[in-house]
Each structure stands twice: as C-alpha cells, then as structure tokens.
Design a protein that fits this description.
The protein is an alpha+beta fold and about 110 residues long. It is built from one helix and seven strands. The chain has two domains: about 80 residues, Lipocalin (Beta Barrel), CATH 2.40.128; about 25 residues. It is elongated.
C-alpha cells in the first residue's frame, strides 16, 4: 500500500496514487461526517456515522462492518496493536480492585 494515499471525507474513503494523485478507488460508507481511519497491513479500518468498517486497502472493498448498535452516531476512534506492558498492568490492577469490591459487596449482602 506504499503507492497509495488515503483520504477520509464526508462519508467516503478515497485512495489516491501517491505519485500522480489519480483516484484509484472510492468507497462510500455511512453519513456525511468525516471518516476516521487507520491502515494495518492490507486492512484499512474506519469509523463512519457510528459504525466500524474494515476495507481491503488495495481495492476499497468492504470486508466487514459492525453497526456498533446502541452507541450512537458520533465520531468513533480506532486503535490497533499491542498495548504497552504498563497499561496492561494498570488495567489488571483496576480489574483486581473492581473484583475485590464486588466480592466485598456480595459478602456484605
């Protein structure tokens, strides 16, 4: 995908040739809001109008779509990759505290 530049605009994702600027493909997603997206290998992950999409970065074909039901239509962000060890440990500590609190509340009732 090194030869492409991706643009998310008004409910669409567009792939442009990096050298010439020629449009290679265009895929309409949802709504008229800006498209937030990230590239991960051959997958282009995007959010549009409260839904999540995975597109084939080479062709623009939608590989899957999740409507994220019940979460509204606002902008949604995307993160990929491994979580840093410090964050994993911090989340584990939070979960342990929550489990202890829940166990204490159950024992008290």
């Amino acid at each position: 995908m090194k030869d492409l530049v991706f643009v998310g605009i008004r409910g669409a994702l567009v792939a442009l040739d990096r050298t010439t600027g020629t449009e290679r493909w265009r895929t309409r997603l949802k709504g008229q809001q800006p498209i937030l997206f990230t590239l991960d290998g051959p997958g282009l992950y995007a959010t549009a109008n409260g839904e999540a999409f995975c597109l084939d970065a080479a062709t623009g074909a939608v590989l899957w779509n999740n409507p994220l039901k019940g979460l509204g239509l606002g902008l949604a962000t995307i993160a990929l990759g491994a979580m840093p060890p410090e964050q994993v440990q911090a989340l584990a500590a939070i979960r342990a505290r929550q489990a202890q609190a829940a166990a204490g509340a159950a024992a008290a009732s």
